[in-house]
Amino acid sequence: MMQPADFTALLPFLIITATSVAVMLLIAVVRSHRWTVGLTTLGLTAAFFSLFISLRVAPRQVTPLLLVDRYALFYIGLIVAGAAAVALFSYDYFEKKEGRREEFYVLLLVATLGAAVLASSSHFASFFLGLETLSIPLFAMNAYLPDRKRPLEAGIKYLILAAVSSAFLLFGMALIYAALGTMSFRRIASLLAGDQPMETILILSGAVLILTGVGFKLSLVPFHLWTPDVYEGAPAPVTAFIATVSKGAMFALLLRAQVAAVNPTLQTAALIPSAAAGDPAAGPIVFLIALIAAASMIAGNFLALLQSNVKRILAYSSIAQMGYILVAFLAAGRFAVETVTFYLVTYFVTTLGAFGVVTLLSHPDREADQIDDYRGLFWRRPLLAGIFTAMLLSLAGLPLTAGFVGKFYLVAAGAASALWTLVFILVITSGISVFYYLRVIVALFANAEPAAPIASISFLGRGLIIVLAGLLIWLGTYPTPLIRIVQAMAAGVG
Amino acid sequence: MILVWLILIPLIGGLLAWAFGRDGKNTSRWISLIAVGLGFILSIVLWVRNAGRVMTFSAERPVAWLEEINLPWIPRFGITFHLAMDGLSLLLIVLTFFLGILSVLASWREIQERVGFFHFNLLWVLSGIVGVFLAVDLFLFYFAWELMLIPMTFLIAIWGHERRIYAAIKFFIFTHIGGLLMLIAILALYLIHGRATGNYSFAYEDLLNTPLRPETARWIMLGFFASFAVKLPMFPFHTWLPDAHTEAPTAGSVILAGLLLKTGAYGLLRFIFPLFPQAAREVAPYVMTLGVIGIIYGAFLAFSQTDLKRLVAYTSVSHLGFVLLGVFSWNALGIQGAVMEMLAHGISTGALFILVGQIQERTHTREIDRMGGLWSTMPRWSGVGFLFTMAAIGLPGLGNFIAEVLVLLGTYRVSVALTVWAAVGILVGTFYGMRLVQKVFHGPNRNGWTLPDLGTREILILVPLILTIVWLGIYPQPVFETFQATMEALQLAAGQTAVALGRG
To answer: How far, in Å, CA of B130 to CA of A206, rounded?
Structure first.
């Protein structure tokens, strides 16, 4: 039986679900882009504030499937805020398109719901359900502009990839279920922490298969091959959504598993059995993750050097960023939660800002993704170009921006856990990464003939990127408030 | 608060210059001039106020701060907003604002495009440099260290010459990777200190007494050193410098040579020996050898350049070799010489870059072969040029001479062989000096140049530089006195009994 408190805990989920239904009904009655976006944003805002109500009953296990604790609520907050930003950017983007644009927001809301489920799942079933709820709307969102070739290609690529990765995930889960006879993270953790004899081979291969599925979603090397094509092909706001919300949710789940594995007394999941022995630097799975992290940092940054398409540059850069996060991910326990979460927040702000600028300059007919589209932009659109510069500098990790503090956090976490090799790779590759960010920045400031006039940008879109830029500077110069929140949250997990 | 203002004035001035850039080019120029002027007045006030003040320091707290401000910033990591000034930072800040004023004046006519944004970048570089000279929290130091790179890169990339993009990106990547290695070293030091004492802090004074195993100390020292060596620049990490200097606009070159390179030297003095005395002594012979190679190599390459600006750039490699030599000899004479060289090189090279900028404005070329016989048409410009060429090759009576002699005396106590080779380097220096004087000023005016000589504004820029370089050459005592206490404190921090110069 579900208690009333369970419904309080589930309030954010209920509000997002209700909003998606309401938006669907609204479209049936009146096709108004403005109203649809308004209702979507309103619903997401309500969901965001309902988090504070849910916080009162947290932590709470709602059915065996969902665990609503501080950690989950924090990540849901991040996801919902990210989704709201994407919705607002989508308004500017799709406003330039004729007809049939309202359904996009239903898809967006459903995908957001899936991401929220991922962030709070405590069972393989909810893990899988959340993942599929997130992925399936994304196929349609990728291919939302069917009269263009690239989005269709992106949609199909993403569909096939997601299907394959789901298959891997399911198989991995099945193997672990076969070995342990349970799918609840809590049970798995306690079984792994116990000293009963187990079929280690089954668990290990299960974990590797799950890691493969997760690697696809996070576009880690060597599972990254889809990323540049989908980033390039998808409509700009969808790319922003994939880059932030989808990956953030996956990291939320992964991180919970990691903390549990390193510290088995925590009653959550243990997907990294070898690390359960207490030594986080040992074991084949940890080694594998370290390898993936190194490969992602190296491949992401070096391949980005070869690109001339801004969306592809950002795609490869995001592969590298995921690699960076994995370094902190391998750090010890609570510090890992703190670092990864802080970095993810800065990554959300930065990536949304960067793709926000791309979105505002793009058309449903043509994406502004060639470097030439940005040549001399600073002298025509100083605000947009200035903010884009700040976002790129943040991705590169330079001072005054959030990315600087984020990268400092990462290096500190890596150094504190003595992951020197990974820290060195991080530092060297991120030094190289500056090259391609600078190339875009230099183009922004180049002397150029005024290109085709840029479509007007709504007050809303402009306001939003200014807010994101403000957050960027604030986090870059005075991160203490966010650090306090993240610390309090990490204390709840560990 | 006065220290915070030293950083804030250029920051705010930069924003204002940018904001009012649209109202006319002269508005931004005057705003920046007022901002750097205010900074200069403030730093002079500080100098006068602290002149003759006796500093106390002990082996437990070997720092001689004249001014200090300490505010909490990111308590999670024990990071504070901690600024402090001693004699060394004071001298360098005076130099910063002095060259800042001249940079603004030198770009008055040269920069006609995007004037507001230019001054924004110029002032923000200065602000970052002042931050580097003042920060005594290592995180804050790294913050300022990285902060000054971006506007500098913009200065080169937007207002530079033909190959500006290449030069800007090269400059940025070299210094950025160096900086990141320093970040690892800072973090390692922070963690080791925290684990040993339970006090996780980035404060310079705390970290001075970190117990380190020799092996660890060597690695961490190398991390710091990598960053400073690139910035200095030490041979063989100097390859970014000729490109950056040559492509940058005049003001950019002045700031690069006069100030940015000094941040590397400052880092060596402030951090390497005091934090890692043992490890620093171990590597000293190698570093000093590289310094000597830099002196000779830089002088030879300067000799073989056909581009006037590139020539001046390579002389910087040569002169900074002396700084390296002086610092790593780590005795009173050597350190005095290194600091003197930092100041004198800032003045003389700054002046040379301004002179090259003036000739380029008139002839639109920097090719030495296309000049010749300029004395007949521009006697004033040539006279000043002659003076600063002589300063650069170390003519007695000018600042560089004092510096180089002191460095040689300091090195002599450590290694006779290196002293001899460094002296040979000075000799090679006279070759490029003579060649420059001969090819540019003297000889027949084959190209038939008829150029306007220096105007009032241009003379106004050069006169203070002339006065300063002569002053440093004839009466350098005030500089030594300002720096005396700091030097003793630094030596004490490095576990050495302070040796006072001129006090027996």
So the answer is: 56
- Please check whether residue A375 touches B, CB under 8 A: no
Nearest to B146 among A399, A430, A479 (CB): A399
- 360-419 in B: which are within 8 Å (CB) of A? none
Chain B residues in contact with A479 by the CB 8 A cut-off are: 74
Euclidean distance between CA atoms A136 and B271, whole angstroms: 56
- Residue A483 has its nearest CB partner, among B74, B144, B158, at B74
CB–CB of A325/A343 below 8 Å?
A: yes
CB-CB contact of B299 with B431 (8 Å): yes
Is A434 in Cβ contact with B176 (below 8 Å)? Answer: yes
Q: In angstroms, what CA-CA distances link B484 with A164, A207, B64?
A: 71, 65, 10
Select from B157, B169, B180 the Cβ nearest to the Cβ of A430.
B180
Please give, one letter per residue, the 3-state secondary structure of B44-77: HHHHHHHCCCCCCCCCCCCCCCCEEEEEEEEHHH
B-chain residues within 8 Å CB-CB of A438?
153, 168-169, 172
Whether the Cβ atoms of residue B62 and residue B493 lie closer than 8 Å to each other: yes
The predicted-structure confidence for A450-481, as pLDDT tens digits, reads as follows 666 666 778 888 999 999 999 999 999 999 99
Q: Could you report the per-residue pLDDT of B192-241, keeping only the tens digit for each?
A: 998 888 888 999 988 888 888 888 999 999 999 999 999 988 888 888 99
Residues with Cβ within 8 Å of A334's Cβ and at least 6 positions away in sequence, in order, are A259, A490, A491, A493, A494
Phi, psi of A317 (to 5 degrees): -65, -35
Task: Please report the sign of the dihedral spanned by the C-alpha atoms of residue A273, residue A278, residue A282, residue A287.
Answer: positive
Whole-number Å distance between alpha carbons of B468 and B462: 10
Residues of B in contact with A490 (CB under 8 A): none
- For B10-47, write each residue's pLDDT tens digit: 999 999 998 888 777 788 899 999 999 999 999 999 99
ipTM: 0.87
Show the tokens assigned to B65: 């701060």
Residue of A442, A475, A484 to mutate, testing the B interface (most B Cβ within 10 Å of its Cβ): A442
Nearest CA in chain B to A445: B158
